[in-house]
Q: What sequence folds into this?
């Protein structure tokens, strides 16, 4: 009996190790492609993506949105969409990781509503991404608050698979937003929001015959917006994550 259990655990560990290796190899491949893009290409593709995002009914109808503040290079640029959302009267939240980067925990903090370029005055973290200053009054998003979450990533496939940067921030955050254990201690309360909309540049979308290696802790996106198309993913299995996924260590994705 114990031998069978041990073998099962070994198989699971081997499978997880294999997926980890596949993810690392794919990260290396996609990072090289993105790094080869010029600033003009990144800016142009970024704007094409945001033109598509603002046309989405889910964006237009959303009152509260989770966005992200981009790194200065090698990533889709978000300044214009953050400004647009605030100017449209939407309540915008952006990530804060804080000092402990290895904790793999992230909050989305409500942004100032009166200053669309607030991020220009914020200090930056180790990735040169703006985060709230120490004296900023933090109002974090709670389960059920966000109507729409714009999700970054390193790579995506057409089935909604997502490859993060490697820390687990977004999968853990989504799990917390969709399952509130504080309101009902025994079973928790599940939410069907936020709607998960991924955004990426052309080199970050895998060819149709390729898939992102995933585990049970990886959330699938409901839409993927690229410079050329908007991909609507089947909602019959939009997530492979159980409601308790935020509790575990997970893999190393972000």
A:
């Amino acid at each position: 009996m114990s031998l069978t259990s041990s073998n099962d655990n070994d198989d699971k560990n081997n499978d997880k190790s294999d997926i980890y290796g596949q993810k690392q190899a794919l990260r290396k491949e996609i990072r090289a492609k993105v790094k080869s893009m010029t600033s003009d290409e990144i800016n142009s593709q970024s704007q094409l993506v945001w033109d598509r995002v603002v046309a989405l009914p889910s964006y237009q109808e959303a009152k509260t949105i989770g966005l992200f503040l981009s790194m200065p290079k090698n990533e889709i640029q978000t300044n214009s969409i953050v400004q647009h959302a605030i100017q449209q009267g939407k309540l915008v939240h952006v990530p804060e990781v804080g000092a402990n980067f290895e904790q793999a925990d992230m909050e989305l903090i409500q942004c100032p509503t009166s200053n669309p370029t607030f991020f220009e005055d914020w200090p930056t973290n180790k990735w040169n991404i703006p985060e709230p200053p120490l004296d900023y009054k933090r109002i974090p998003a709670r389960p059920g608050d966000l109507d729409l979450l714009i999700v970054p990533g390193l790579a995506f496939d057409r089935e909604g698979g997502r490859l993060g940067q490697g820390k687990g921030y977004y999968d853990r955050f989504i799990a917390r937003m969709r399952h509130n254990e504080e309101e009902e201690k025994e079973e928790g309360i599940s939410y069907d929001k936020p709607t998960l909309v991924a955004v990426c540049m052309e080199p970050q979308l895998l060819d149709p015959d390729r898939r992102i290696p995933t585990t049970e802790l990886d959330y699938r996106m409901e839409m993927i917006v690229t410079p050329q198309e908007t991909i609507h993913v089947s909602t019959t299995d939009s997530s492979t994550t159980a409601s308790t996924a935020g509790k575990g260590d997970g893999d190393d994705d972000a």
In short: Helices lie at 2-35, 39-54, 57-61, 79-87, 169-177.
